[in-house]
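Intended use. Records like the one below are meant for learning the mapping from a protein sequence to its folded structure. Do not use them to infer anything beyond what is encoded.
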Amino acid sequence: MPSVTPGERRASADAFLVHLQHLFATDTDWNDGMQWVAGRALTDDVAVVLHRDRPGGPVLGRRYDLAAERTLFTDDSAEAIAGEAWTGDFVDPSGPGALLPVDWADGLCDDPRSVQWIGVRR
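Structure written out for the chain above:
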């Protein structure tokens, strides 16, 4: 496994978010009204994505452990992981969200306490 510096991981987390946001904006074959709300790298290996699955719908959140994600795929580039997230988590969503007492969405949306977190284990 190649050695990755913290700065490269942060750049990878940021690149993951850029690629995922690009898919929200451009993949019109699969995006039927979903909306990107916000995203950010919380740490070198953790990214948070907020979106709506339909216009006016609740803000849904996902937290990605990118170090764990990189171990799952042969192509562990930020672009490939974003593509996997897009098809696995957004195109084919994993069910309803849950309100969690976390601060991951602070500053990313108007009411961070109302974010419904999907696929997140604390």
